[in-house]
Amino acid sequence: MADAREKRRAVLKVGKHNVSQSPFVVGSIVRISMENFLTYSVCEVRPGPNLNVVLGANGTGKSSIVCAICLGLAGKPSFLGRADKVGLFVKQGCMKGTVEIELFKSPENIIITREIHVVNNTSVWFINGRPATLKTVEEQIADLNIQVDNLCQFLPQDKVGEFTKLSKTELLEATEKSIGSPEMYQFHCELKNFREKERELENLCKEKTTSLEKMKQRVERYKQDVERYHECKRHVDLIEMLERKRPWVEYENFREQHEEVKQYRNQVKKELKSLKEMQAPWTKRIQEAEENLRNLDMKTRDNTAEIRSISQKCKEKQDALEMKDKQIEEINQAFRMKKDEETNRQKKIHQTQVIIEEWQNELDTMAVCENLQPQIDAVNTELKKLQEERANIDNDISDLRADKKNQEREEKRIIDRLGQLNNIMHMKEENLKMRFRDTHSALMWLRNNKDKFKKKTCEPMMLEINVKDSSHAKYIENHISENDMRAFVFECQEDMETFLLEVHDHQKLRVNAVCAPAESYAGNLPSRPIEELHRYGFYSYLRELFDAPPPVMNYLCYQYRVHDVPVGTQKTRDMIEKVIQETGLKQIYTAEEKYAIKVSSYTKQNLSSNVCLKEARYLTSSVDTDERRQLENRGQDIRNTLKSLDVRLTVLFDRQKLLEHKDNKLRHEKKALLERGNRRRQLESKISMKHDSLRQLEQDAIDLEKEFQLANVKIKEINKQKSELVTELMHLMKKIIPLNIIKVSLTLQTTRATAEKNRLQSEYKTATVQLRAAQQRFHELDNKKQLLYEKCIELMKQARQVCRLGPNQDFPEEFQVAFQTLPNTLEEIDAFLNEEKTRASCFTGLSASVVEEYNKQTQEIQQLTEYLEGKKNELNNYKQNISQVKEKWLSLLKVMIEQVNGKFSKFFSSMQCVGEVDLHMENEGEYEKYGIRIRVKFHSSTELYELTPYHQSGGEKTVSTMLYLMALQELNRCPFRVVDEINQGMDPLNERRVFEMVVDTACKKRTSQYFLITPKLLQNLPYNDKMTVLFVYNGPFMLETYKWNMKRFRKRQRRLSRMSE
């Protein structure tokens, strides 16, 4: 081994070297240099070309070398699983750290340097001492086929468990990248892309073919409509030409009528002139007769006016006589009313006397009023007592109602608050459903099947844990693993196995479950009271920051020691060195960081690591279970109180009704007593009032004899006035008789004059009728001529407008030719027009848009056909490409899997176990679902089972992972592989077997570099001269780097050997 190291050093001293002569593979790590990086201030590691066993106790810095390789080769911090910020990898107290990796390459090595700055978590890159960008570094690393993000090549300590969680597809891609030829993974990617394109093209072609068929069907329907449209167009054109000719024909008809009417009008005008000359003498005689009639009419009107005046005076006298008769009748009527009034008075006097006699008899028969006052006082006393009792009951009812209202308000407040708490629980369940759907499905099954379990079962911890202050949720979530946060908690192992059998084996759900220890840990006290830690900024232990059911708290105290992990503030962070040195705590939390402290097995000094706290995701919404329990108890008490209040109110209401009934009864008794005492006084008062009324009636007596004499005197006076009126009326009648005789004479003269006038007018009328008829005929013909002229002008204008002719434009020859083929009369044109319109109306629902749409659809069909043909050709090309690439890829893939399976099976056979690696595919055409399936069998009595995160034990998964990586080692084209502490889960027998395989495989000639990181090795293991063992020590007694001198060590060794001889 020493000679090998000397040879390696000699090779490294040469500036330029030949790849074929070097034991290193291109891309292997020649040197790792760290400065202010994690636990190292300054450190340089020079690994060998084959197997490198990095050995050292826990906490000495082995994994720091792994972190340096990852970060120095452009890896992301998240891949290491330790921290999410690169600045956290700088040694505490320093502002900058450096990692330098030297990679083997011909003719000169590549040196990649990364400076990490704590401020803003930034990095500066160098290649061979020259500044470079991250992209340039990544390209250099990719050229050397280094893949620090591939678990098949780089398996850090915190990612060992994730290898078995890789899906078959992910494992295939990682294996292709790791050991396959460059074109293999490229072929795989091309196949997936080609297949995706093929699907898209198939769907597109199918969709376009369907669209094309629909368009063809639609165009076929349009074709019939287009033919019907053209036929309709011919009828419409003919209709339009007929409508153009019709106004010209109509105009010509009216023009001919106008000429005929004009000639007849001129003839009638001549006849009218001769008739007017013949009628002049008759007009003069008729005018003389009319003058005589007017004179007679004036005399008749004067005579009639005088007669009317005298007649009016006669009428006035007659009206006065009638008025006197009415006055006499009114006097007689007044006397009769006096007589009736006296009769009614006598009847009322008699009735009043009868009533007084009856009341007097009742008063005489009534006994002297007994003394009712004691009875009335007794009733009043009872009423007062009842009123006092009713008032007390009303007060009690009012108080009870107020209490009930207060209790109901309190109950509503409690219900609202419980609703808010239930909403918070619902939000937590929705969060669980969104993040862990299988866990939520198992939760629903558990709630419906709790009767199948013997002891209490707890739902996932993220639902059961209630943080008292949401700002503390991040401490709980960073302390408890995510797997346990979504784990169900059981009190007995049998219940947990029943649950897992159902959800794992039957429902195929990926859920976690834990069993709380039988012994109670929830009541354990912390190692020291929190008061002693106040001076360091600590204010509580984790257990005091949340509530949980007893099984959950018992498990957390046992597994995570939440009762003994304190939580501090920024003050704690500021004095963290003092806290670590003085308190001896293993885990602590500051405001934003988590610290883990270990004690070195060699130096006994404290070694600390810290990570930034991640933001809480599950426990930000919490429910105070104590508050909820108190609210539910308080709500039950309120409901009981309300029932009691309702019972008491019912009793009081019944008592109130009874008292009200008694009160009404006593009031009726009091009213009857009062009425008995008041009856005598009422009778005496009524009799007195009736006597007064009787005296008034006797005083109102009427003297009928006297009234009769007064009426006769008035009647005699009126009769005297009537006599005078009759004398005056007779005198007027004598004056009116001569006037009537004159009126009759005038009437006869008027009749003779009227007859003479009528005779003259009759003779004149005959000639006038002829004249008027001639005038009427002339006016009618003149009006008709004018109307026809206007109609001709209007029709001419319409005809030119219909034909779209200008004012001075000549009639087109094409219209003349077209009009010659059409009918020449309006009747024939209208008949022809109706016939054509009837035919055109049969073509309904057609428009020019149908032709446009038909042409457009035809063009689209042609374009779509060409487009579809191109896509089908493109699809055929893709299918040919897929067939060619698939053949190349499958041939390479099957060879690779056969080789891996051969190595893997061989390694398992050497351990008396069985292991197989095969190609898994769900559908031959779905290349994105191709994967590698690993099946193992560790016991002869079992069958081959697929390697999953759940079926095999931790040691079996570790062995399977290690042997798969070893199977890749000889086939690997990557320059190096890193495996960190993978042997920790193995039993001694498997660990020895695996180590032997690692040495045998990694130390073969021209294999890639291998890093095996482990804190321990078994005794008497086989070693090889080609392997390099790097011991990692750390502590205050180590030599400084600049004091390390290998020549002095060897010289001292030879001197000691000679002395011993």
UniProtKB/TrEMBL annotation:
Coiled-coil region(s) at which residues? 191-334, 369-417, 680-791, 854-888
Q: What is its main location?
A: nucleus
What SUPFAM superfamilies is this protein classified in? P-loop containing nucleoside triphosphate hydrolases
Among InterPro entries, the record links this protein to:
P-loop_NTPase, RecF/RecN/SMC_N
Q: Where is the RecF/RecN/SMC N-terminal domain?
A: 29-1014
- Quaternary assembly: Forms a heterodimer with smc6. Component of the SMC5-SMC6 complex which consists at least of smc5, smc6, nsmce2, nsmce1 and nsmce4a.
Similarity remark = Belongs to the SMC family. SMC5 subfamily.
What is the protein named?
A: Structural maintenance of chromosomes protein 5
